[in-house]
Amino acid sequence: MTGQPRAEDLLREIAPQVLGVLVRRYGQFDACEDAVQEALLAAVVQWPAEGIPDRPRAWLLTVAGRALVDGWRADSARRHRETAVALDPAGPVPAADRGDTDPPGGPPGADRDDTLTLVFLCCHPALSPPSQLALTLRAVGGLTTAEIAAAFLVPVATIAKRIGRAKQRIREAGARFELPAEPEAAERLGVVLHVLYLIFNEGYTASSGPALQRADLTAEAIRLARLLYRLLPGQGEVAGLLALMLLTDARRAARTDTGGRAVPLAEQNRALWDAAAIAEGQALLAKTLGAGPVGPYQLQAAIAALHDEAPTAEQTDWPQILALYDILAAVAPGPMVTLSRAVALAMVHGPRAGLALLGTLDTDARMAHTHRLEAVRAHLLEQAGDAAAARRSYLRAAAMTASLPEQRYLVLRAARLDQP
Questions:
Q1: Cα 36 from Cα 46, distance rounded (Å)
Q2: Span(s) in the chain for CATH 1.25.40.10
Q3: What crossing angle do the helices spanning 387-400 and 404-418 adopt, rounded to 10°?
Q4: Please, what's the largest Cα pairwise distance for the chain?
Q5: d(Cα 120, Cα 223) in Å, to the nearest integer?
Q6: What distance in Å separates the CA atoms of residue 219 and residue 410, rounded to the nearest whole number?
Q7: All residues at 6 or more sequence positions from 19 whose CB lies less than 8 Å from its CB, including other chains
Q8: How does DSSP classify residue 92?
Q9: Closest among 362, 418, 374 to 400, alpha carbons compared
C-alpha cells in the first residue's frame, strides 16, 4: 500500500456510497451501517499489509455484504421475514431468506452513487431536526461522535444517544430508500443544507487532530452540494451554500504555512487563493441573489465574496460586511453569527465595540463547548491594547480546543504578548 492517509481518505469517500447501495438493496439502515463499520475495520486491518485493492469500493461492498448476511443468519428465519415485511412489504427479501449466501458485489446498480439519497433518508421527517443532523453527519460525513458533538456544541454522550434513537426511528418508520419528490425534498431541504454545511465546516477547520484542515471532508461536502444543486437548481439557498463552500475553500492553500501552522486571514498570501473557485462562487452568487428570498447561506456567501474580492486585508469592505452580518443576525440569529458580527463590528467601530457585543455571549451555555469565544475575545483585547487580558484569553482558548494547529497558534499569540 502507498501511504495510510490515502487509504483513510478513500475509505471516508466510499463508505457512504457502500452504505447507500446496501440500504437501497435491503432497506435495513441500522443493520447495513453496522455491516459497513465491520467492513471498514477489516480494511483498516488488511489494506496496510496487502495494499489497496484495485476496486476498493467493490471490495468494501463485498465484505460489508458478507457481514450483513452473517448477521441475518444469526437470527431466526421468522424474524428475518417479519423484519423485511415491516420495513418494506414490497421490497426485496433479505438474502438469508432467499437462500442467497453470496454477498452483494456486482448486481445492477452497484456502481450507482446513492450518497445524496442517503442524505435525504437520514433527514426523514420522522426524526427530529437534531437527530437528522447527527445521523447524517455520522452515516454520510463519516464524522466521529466527538466531532459531531463539537459541531453541535453539546456533550458527546448527548450525540451518542441521539444517533442511537435516530437509527431506531428510521427502522420503525419503514422509510424507503429513494429520493423524495420535489415537494417533499423541499421540506427536508433545510436539514440537508445544514448537514452539508457542518460537514464542510469540520473539513475546513477540523475540531481535533494534528491537521487544521481535512480536504476529504470539504471535497465531499462540495460534491454533494453540486449534486443537490443539479437536483434543485431553482432553490436559491442550494446555490448559496455551494457558492459559500467554493468561496471559502478557495483560501485553503493559504491557511497554513509550510510547517502546517495556521495563518490568519489577514496574513494570508492571497496569490495562493484558488481564482477558479472564486470565479465559480461569484457567478453562482450573482445568478441567485435577487432571484428570490435571500437566506442565510446566500448572505454568508456574499460575505465570503467580499473577503475574496479584497486585494489586501486592508482593502476589505468591512462596513459592507457588517451590514450583511446585521441582516444575517436578523434572518438566522445564533451565537456563531454574533461571534462573527463582533469581529466585523470591531473592524468598523473599534475593538471595544466588538468586546461589548461578545459580552452578550458569556451566559450562553452553547459557547461552553467551543474555544472560539475566548479566541475572538483574545484577538479583540489585543487590538484594544490590553495585552495581559489578551494573553489570558489566548491561553484559555488554547486549553479548550483539541485542534493541535489551533492550540499552537493560540499559544504562540500568547507568547508574543509576553515579549517587551
A1: 15
A2: 315-420
A3: 160
A4: 78
A5: 15
A6: 27
A7: 32, 33, 36, 64, 118, 139
A8: P
A9: 374
Residues 6+ apart with CB under 8 A from 176: 27, 88, 91
Buried b (16+ CB within 10 A) or exposed e, 51-79: ebeeebbbbbbbbbbbbbbebbeeeeeee
Matching residue, cell 494570508: 268
Residue 160 class from Cβ within 10 Å (0-12 exposed, 13-18 middle, 19+ buried)? Answer: middle
Helix axes 236-249 and 275-288, enclosed angle (nearest 10)? 160
CA 43 from chain centre, in angstroms, equals 24
**Residue that is written with C-alpha cell 486571514 in the block:** 265
Q: Return the pLDDT at 299.
A: 96
Indicate the pTM of the whole model.
Answer: 0.75
Residue with cell 510547517: 259
Task: List the Cα angle 234/239/240 in 5-degree steps.
Answer: 130
Collapsed DSSP state (helix, strand, coil) of residue 208: strand
Facing residues of 403 across strands? Answer: 209
Q: Could you identify the residue written with the cell 431468506?
A: 97
Q: List, for residues 251-291, the tens digit of each pLDDT value.
A: 999 999 988 889 999 999 999 999 999 999 999 999 998 77
Query: Which residue in this structure is represented by grid cell 445521523?
Result: 135
Burial of 183 (0-12, 13-18, 19+ CB in 10 A): exposed
Domain 315-420 is in which class?
A: mainly alpha
Residue 188: other Cβ atoms inside 10 A:
18
**pLDDT tens figures, 100-154:** 333 444 444 445 567 778 888 888 888 888 888 788 878 887 777 887 887 777 8
Q: What is the pLDDT of residues 195-245, one digit of tens each?
A: 899 889 988 998 888 888 888 889 888 988 998 898 888 889 999 999 999
| pLDDT score of 341 more than 90 | yes
